[in-house]
Specification:
- The chain has 423 residues and is mainly alpha-helical.
- The protein has a domain at 11-139 and 249-415.
- The protein has helices spanning 16-38, 41-45, 53-65, 69-92, 97-118, 124-136, 142-166, 189-196, 202-213, 217-238, 241-258, 268-293, 301-331, 335-346, 348-363, 376-400, 405-415.
């Protein structure tokens, strides 16, 4: 039996199309996540009520063009990257199981640190758990991955719709807390609000506002950890989003194994782009318009239908975006933009966590303390500024080094040997 130790892939083996699409996906992810960095979770999850036209338009743009699409794209890219790495490592021979287990374990630790100490919207911990399923199915043919992936998406959407259908209460406004603190209550306000949020969910928004805008660190960590655990249990568990992530991984694996980036299938990206955008875009824009003019009926039958459309159309549109980005990467058009986004994508892990560090530095009490004060249009302006900073930093870093700092550490720990860093 060959027990040789696997080695990482050389830089020459990278697919530049994947790096470009990753960089593009990171921009879209920041557009969506900026709302959760900037305001309480309830407010970020729900459309603006009583806001001006600019607030509504900004919400509509994010909802129809970005929300769920770029996380779906990022998830498919994870499956593609896994397939590429798995095929090349298996080609080396030797035992690769421990390599993947270490890789996923390190990712889980990074996700845990990210969720507890930086931002509760982490996806890395979930990716690590879902990646273990990918490992055990790595030898499946692409058609099986495609079939199981599509079935999983439909099932996940059905679970989400069923959960939405069971919600029969009216939406609660975060500013309309009906409980007041007793005069002799000795708990700090943030802790009192957190303890009573099960009776009045709007109080959780108050706890977040105090913890993130005023501190102290104990309040920030406790509230963030509660929010993260709630997201794992409710969103990824009960609402079926963990199954959705696994299904998206499978779609990415299927597309890579089927030869999306191979020259003999050069017509595929165009077809995916045309079909994905032609189907997904009208559905998403139409659903957003209906939501706006019907008063955002989250607890009604119409609201349940719109949620299902959003779940499925976002994936269709993500596939279209993947096809379009691949076409751009191959076309030779806009070479300087492609080069810049490729550099961002090569440092995807560093830049994903870097977005959290930079944005919480702007929003939270240890930085500028702007949490809850930035309108949706200004949030989008901030996205442009922060992403330009990431483009500049990625470009400067990769002029000197081969890998991003977190990519270097991740690779070194995965293969149990220090990797070359400087060019």
């Amino acid at each position: 039996m060959d027990t040789s130790r696997p080695v990482p892939l050389p830089d020459s083996g990278r697919l530049r199309e994947l790096d470009f699409v990753r960089g593009f996906a990171l921009f879209g992810i920041l557009v969506v996540n900026i709302g959760f960095f900037s305001m309480p979770s309830f407010q970020a999850l729900h459309p603006p009520i009583g806001g001006g036209r600019s607030e509504t338009l900004s919400w509509g743009i994010v909802r129809a063009l970005f929300e769920l699409k770029f996380m779906a794209l990022f998830s498919m890219l994870f499956g593609m990257g896994f397939t590429l790495q798995s095929a090349r490592l298996m080609g080396q021979g030797g035992r690769i199981g421990m390599v993947f287990l270490r890789r996923l374990g390190i990712l889980a630790v990074l996700g845990l640190i990210h969720a507890v100490l930086i931002w509760n919207g982490d996806i890395l911990f979930v990716y690590a758990a879902a990646g273990a399923i990918l490992y055990w199915t790595r030898k499946w043919p692409w058609k099986r991955h495609l079939t199981v992936g599509v079935t999983g998406l439909l099932l996940a959407t059905g679970i989400h719709v069923a959960v939405e259908a069971m919600e029969r209460r009216e939406p609660i406004q975060p500013s309309a807390s009906r409980i007041r603190q007793a005069p002799d209550d000795r708990d700090p306000r943030w802790l009192w609000a957190l303890k009573n949020s099960h009776r009045d969910p709007s109080l959780f928004s108050e706890a977040e506002s105090i913890a993130y805008k005023q501190g102290p660190m104990k309040a920030t960590i406790v509230v963030r950890t509660v929010a993260w655990l709630g997201m794992l249990i409710v969103m990824y568990g009960l609402a079926g989003y963990f199954l959705r992530v696994v299904a998206l991984f499978f779609l990415g694996v299927a597309l890579m194994k089927a030869g999306l980036f191979e020259s003999e299938h050069e017509q595929w990206p165009g077809r995916l782009c045309r079909c994905g955008i032609a189907i997904g875009f009208p559905l998403e824009v139409g659903a957003a318009i209906v939501m706006h003019f019907t008063g955002y009926p989250s607890a009604s039958f119409l609201g349940v239908v719109l949620a299902g459309i959003h779940d499925l159309a976002s994936v269709v549109m993500a596939v279209g975006i993947l096809g379009g980005a691949t076409l751009i990467a191959r076309s030779g058009a806009l070479p300087w933009i492609r080069s810049l986004l490729e550099r961002v994508g090569r440092m995807a892990l560093t830049n994903y966590l870097g977005q959290s560090v930079m944005t919480t530095g702007v929003m939270y009490w240890w930085g500028l303390g702007l949490f809850g004060e930035i309108s949706r249009p200004r949030q989008l302006s901030l996205v442009a500024a922060l992403f330009l900073v990431q483009v500049a930093l990625s470009t400067l870093w990769l002029r000197v080094f081969r890998l991003g700092p977190l990519e270097w550490g991740w690779r070194s720990l995965t293969y149990l040997r220090w990797q070359a860093l400087r060019r």
